[in-house]
Structures are given as structure tokens and as C-alpha cells.
Design a protein that fits this description.
Length: 334
């Protein structure tokens, strides 16, 4: 009896020691050459899209036992705001790989190349450098990969949805963010391409708010005054969409002017439920963050290069599915 007890106790001890090795949750710190792996994450701007991406980054890092350093969130969009925060992040040292959403296709090329040349590989998330084709040698092809939405395809599909909402005729307007940012440029171009398929729809303008919601609201208000017969508006990201929806609501035109938006913030979801917005394209920021950490980890620890482009999908919210329990996972949350 005593012997059986001793055997059982011994077995329990072995299992207790071995269990963490097989556990699927948090791992021991991942290492590269005996040192723990540290990945830095530099977001584009302080907004729910990047907060949600950070959540995906941290969840995957916890699973893999990777340390994450997060750069200070820039409060405005652009290299002037992002570069100092990037410098401060890199100065923390001990970084094995950098994940960054470059806020310009051109201005971030040289600073990121310098980081890459120092032996810190770079993956761009959400936005890309140059034309985003890292598979052919060029000045901007040094990043390991671009991981983000197919913005052109999304823009095209938004145009097709909006066209249906307005009965395939009338004037439409686009509220955009910045002219030299890959994500929003592709959305605008995709939208133009999609709208061109409808001969009775005329695109009367595209303005740039530089990612300032108040400016977006003023620009859409002015567009509605200039063209009172606008029937559809596309707001291409969080702040341009929220500003556009506000302008349409202030003008008392909710419902009459259809508002198609991009980015599933809680604010836009509430506006959709209230009838002030008619369509939302939800990206998958947490998935982008998670895939980026996974790719970075494999590269640092096993030298496995990721594909040059990794493109998670997107979803559409309408009033028909906004309360669907399966759709709630696509609402951006910290
Ligand atoms: O739409 C996202 C992101 O994809 C884009 O590059 C910049 O704007 C957001 O962060 C939303 O504000």
C-alpha cells in the first residue's frame, strides 16, 4: 500500500514538472541564441484600430513567450509624429525585430532601412513602403513582409455596396485621410474603380482630412453645401468616417445620404445601429498583429522567412447583421 502510494506521488511530481512543457497557454520566454526574444511594435496613431492590433500582438506574444515593447502612440498621423516615437522605442535596445505601420510610403523608407541595416529585421503591418511589392529588389523592398488588409479590394467592394444602397445612381463623395499613405490611398483608388462600373453614379470629389475628425466633418459639411444632391459618402478610416457621419447627421440627412465607412469602432457601430451610418467595413487588426508576431518569432528563432505579403480578410457590418453574436468579434476592442 505504502509502495503504491509512493509510486503515485512520484508520478504526480513528474507530471507537475512536465505539464508546463506541454501546456498550450503561456510559454517559457522564447529565446534566440540563449537570449529571450523581444519584438517592438510601433503603431501609426492613437486609435481603436491600433489598440486592437496591440491586443493581437500581445496575445500571440504571451502564447509564444516573446517580450513585446510598444512605442508611444503618435497623437497625429504622419512621419513628424511617428519618427521621434520610433527613435525612442529603438533606443530602449535589445530589440530582435520591429513591427511598424509606416505613416508614409516614402518618408519612412530611409529611417527603416537604417534600422534593418543594423540587423533588426522589419515587418510592416497595416501600411507598406513604396508600392508594397517587397518581392522585387528595390529601395523599399528590405522589409521581411507586409501584413495587412487588401485595401484596394475593400474599397472596390465598398463602392459596390454603396452603389446598391443609392439605387445605382447619383452623386457620391469620398472623405479620405492622407495622400501618401498606402492603406487609405488604396481604399480611395479601389472605390474609384468600383464606382466607375456604374455609369449613372458620379464621384464629385475626394478630400483629405489628415486624420483629423473635426476637419473631416467640416470638409463633408462643405461638400454637402456645394453639392446638395450628394446621395452617398465614403469615409475611408476611423476619423474620416466618424467626421463624415457627424456632418451628415448635423445636416439632418441621415438615411437620405447613405454613409459607407471603414473600421468597426464602437462609435461607428453605434452610429450604424442609430441609422447615421449604413455600412462598415471591419478589418481584422488583432489578426494582423497576431500573424505579425508569429512571423517575426519564426524568423528570429528559426530563420524561417515569411511570405512577402500576408493578407487577412475583412467583414461588412450592415443593420441586418450588426446584432449577430458571430459578428461581435469584429468590433474593435482594446
Ligand atoms: O484604418 C486604419 C488603418 O488601417 C489606416 O492605415 C489608418 O487609419 C486607421 O488606423 C483607422 O484610423
Amino acid at each position: 500500500m505504502k509502495k503504491t502510494m509512493r509510486i503515485l506521488l512520484g508520478l504526480a511530481l513528474v507530471l507537475a514538472i512536465a505539464a508546463p512543457m506541454f501546456a498550450s497557454g503561456t510559454k517559457e520566454a522564447a529565446t534566440s541564441g540563449g537570449k529571450s526574444v523581444t519584438i517592438a511594435f510601433m503603431p501609426g496613431i492613437s486609435d481603436p484600430f491600433y489598440y486592437t492590433m496591440e491586443r493581437g500582438v500581445k496575445e500571440k506574444a504571451k502564447e509564444l513567450g516573446v517580450n513585446i515593447l510598444v512605442g508611444d502612440y503618435p497623437t497625429t498621423w504622419g512621419p513628424e509624429a511617428q519618427l521621434p516615437n520610433l527613435q525612442a522605442l529603438m533606443a530602449r535596445g535589445g530589440i530582435d525585430l520591429l513591427l511598424i505601420a509606416p505613416t508614409s510610403t516614402t518618408a519612412l523608407v530611409a529611417p527603416l532601412k537604417a534600422i534593418s541595416d543594423k540587423g533588426i529585421p522589419v515587418i510592416t503591418v497595416d501600411t507598406y513602403l513604396g508600392n508594397g511589392d517587397y518581392s522585387k529588389p528595390s529601395d523599399f523592398s528590405f522589409p521581411l513582409a507586409y501584413i495587412g488588409t487588401d485595401n484596394k479590394l475593400g474599397g472596390k467592394q465598398v463602392a459596390e455596396h454603396l452603389a446598391k444602397l443609392i439605387g445605382e445612381k447619383g452623386k457620391v463623395f469620398v472623405e479620405n485621410t492622407n495622400p501618401d499613405v498606402s492603406s487609405v490611398t488604396d481604399r480611395g483608388n479601389g472605390f474609384k474603380e468600383g464606382i466607375a462600373e456604374f455609369p449613372n453614379i458620379q464621384m464629385v470629389g475626394m478630400e483629405y482630412c489628415m486624420d483629423v475628425q473635426q476637419k473631416a466633418m467640416e470638409q463633408v459639411t462643405a461638400a454637402l453645401q456645394k453639392n446638395p444632391d450628394i446621395v452617398g459618402i465614403f469615409g475611408v478610416n476611423v476619423f474620416s468616417a466618424q467626421g463624415a457621419a457627424q456632418a451628415v447627421k448635423n445636416a439632418g440627412l441621415s438615411g437620405a445620404v447613405k454613409v459607407a465607412t471603414w473600421d468597426a469602432t464602437e462609435t461607428l457601430i453605434a452610429a450604424l445601429k442609430a441609422g447615421d451610418v449604413d455600412l462598415i467595413l471591419a478589418q481584422k487588426p488583432a489578426e494582423i498583429g497576431s500573424l505579425a508576431v508569429e512571423a517575426g518569432y519564426k524568423y528570429v528563432t528559426q530563420k524561417v522567412a515569411p511570405p512577402k505579403k500576408i493578407v487577412p480578410g475583412f467583414e461588412f457590418f450592415t443593420r441586418d447583421n450588426v446584432n449577430d453574436p458571430n459578428m461581435q468579434q469584429f468590433v474593435y476592442k482594446k
